[in-house]
Specification:
alpha/beta, TIM Barrel, 8-stranded parallel beta sheet, two-stranded antiparallel sheet, 10 strands, globular, binds zinc ion
Amino acid sequence: MENSEGIIERLKKDTVLGAEGYLFELERRGYLKAGPFVPEVVLDFPDAVKELHREFLRAGAEVMVAFTYYAHRDKMKAVGREKHLELLNRTAVKLAREIAGEGNALVAGNLSESWKYDHTRPKESEKIVRPMFEEQVQWASEEGVDFIIAETLDYVGEALIALDVIRQTGLPSMVTYTPILEKSRDGYTWSDACRILEDNGADIVGLNCGRGPNTIYRFLKDIRGSVKCFVAAQPVPYRTTDKQPYFQKLQEIGETSCAFPVALDPFLHTRFEMADFAVKARDIGVNYIGICCGGAPHHVRAMAEALGRTTPSSRYSHDECMQNVSFDGKPICDVD
Ligand SMILES: [Zn+2]
């Protein structure tokens, strides 16, 4: 089937399922370094990136997000690869496009927060941040992305710059904040922060990363109640709590070091819990549902199936009886 329908047409018809978490998954697979989290893997191991795109596609993801997260000039300079900046950005879109063509997926360009924005010096910050966004968006649009996602933003001011740069291409825009704190770093509630984006022409607004389903939900409800445009939600699949509301805070009792970013495994949600999130999010009117850091293809497949879909990898989904494997008539977990 030809993917003649763009993101807006798809969202008008039904929930769209996304999938992210490339940094964390490729780190776990040994292709990317935790800390700098720069996606050099796009140039160094393109097959690894393509394989993860393919696994998300087979699990039901409808959008292949070009892996250009943190592939902006400042980060590339920090790892000594500024000269590969353009090549990396263009290659990432080509890889996503190639795999999207194996199914009926769209390709999204991707911007991340720059770490260079300072809301106490908005004009000076913009002079640094805007050109970084402009070059990435230009390369993405020249490579033919279907829409552009700007994500993990903490400042309304920086989000508005990203939005403006995206809108100049004429492509649909999706702009999402990471709700680590109760408000944006420049002092807006998340629902106000999203409403400001809508007022400035964003097509899709919402939240991604930082919080797990347990602690992101109330913000999503507020946002859904305050904007008319499409809403996106891509939480991390970790068991965040009121005491440890975002995944950078997670720590096991008695431990002195943070679980973030490389010891988060004990906090990982099951596929069933992420499937429950997908249904709950859809039921409150979230239009674009996905997953962020920590997410893996098995989560995405369970989310797709919970939304009533059958995916290429559903052929290998567990049989119902496997949830209660029995031995001598007892569930296996009750056998001593
Ligand atoms: Zn994330």
